[in-house]
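Progress against Task 2.4 (sequence-to-structure conversion) is shown through the following example record, which the project officer requested during the mid-term review.
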Amino acid sequence: MAGVTNKAFRRLCAGFGGGLYVAEMVSARALRHGDHKSWHAYVDFDPGEPIRSLQLYGTDPADVAEATRMLVGDDRVDHIDLNLGCPAPKITRRGGGAAIPLKPRLLAAIVGAAVRNAGPVPVTVKCRIGLDDSLVTYRTVGRIAGEEGCAWVALHGRTAVQLYGGQADWRPIAELKASSSVPVLGNGDVFTAADALRMHRETGCDGVVIGRGCLGRPWLFAELDEAYAGRPVPDAPPFGEVAGVIRRHVALLRETKPEAVAVRDFRKHLSWYAKGYALGVDVRRRLAAVDGVAALEALLDELDPEARPVPGSELLPRAKSSPQARVALPDGYLDDLDDDTPPDAPDAVDGG
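C-alpha cells generated for the chain above:
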C-alpha cells in the first residue's frame, strides 16, 4: 500500500505476527533510470526483515527487465510482486496497474521479463477481477502467471472501477483456485481473523492477503496467528494498549525521518488507530492537526486508557470506498487489445 507499508510499518506489523510484509509499490522505470527517491525511499529494508519483499509496477517490459536485473543483481530483494491491479488514476491513466491485464500480449511480456531476469528470486502477481464488469481479466492473468513461471497469483475480489466500494466478491477467487496451475491467494474485505478463515473455507485459496484490514490495527496479525493455530482470538485492545502501539509506530518512523516529517506522515495512521473508539469530535480534530511528538504524547495522556472500541468498528472503512465513475486510461488504450506496444510514460523517473 503506497504511503503506508514503509519500513517502520512493516517492522511494527512483524512484531505482532508472522507473515510476508511487502514494501511500497515502486516504478520499474524510475529504478531503471536511477531515480534517487525510488532507490533510497522505497527499496529500503530493515536488516532484520527475513524476506525483503518489493512490489514493482511498470508498463514497459524493458523497464521491468532492467529493474528486476538491478534489484536481484545487487541482492536487494528476496521476492518481487508485480502490481497488475492498482486502480489509482495516476497509475491506470499511464497504462499501469489494473490497465495492464487488458492487453494479454503486453501482460505476458511484462510478467515474462520479470521472471526471466529474477533468477532464483520468486516473482508473483497481484490483480483485480478486471477493469469493470464488462472487462474481466483475472482468468487471463491466472493463465499467463502460470505460463510465465510465477510463484503465485493474488486476486482482489473487486474490479478497478469499484476501488474499495461495496463488498468484495470472493467467487472469482474460488474459480481461479480451481483452474489455476499456480497457488492462488485471496484478497478483499479481510478485516478479522474470522474473515481470513472464512475466505480459506469458501474459496480454497492457498493464502490470504491483508490490506486495509491492518490499517490502525497491526495486531490483526497476532489475531491471525492465534486463529490459524486453533487458539482463541483475543478481544480488541483497550485504548491504553493502542496508545502504546501509536508510540512505538512514531518511534520507528523517527528512526528514518525528521520529527516534523514523521508526525505529518503519521496523521493518517492516527485517524485509523482512533476509528471505533469514542474519543469525541474535538479529540479527533486535535489528532488530525498534531504537529510534534510532545503534542501527541500530551494528547494521548488525556485519553481514557480503558476505553474499548465499538463492536464491529474493525469493519469501518479505512480507505476511499466510493466507486469511480470510470477508470482513467491512456487515450485509445482500448482500441487494440492485441497491441503489445508499451504506452507512453513521459514521467520516466516518477517514483512509487
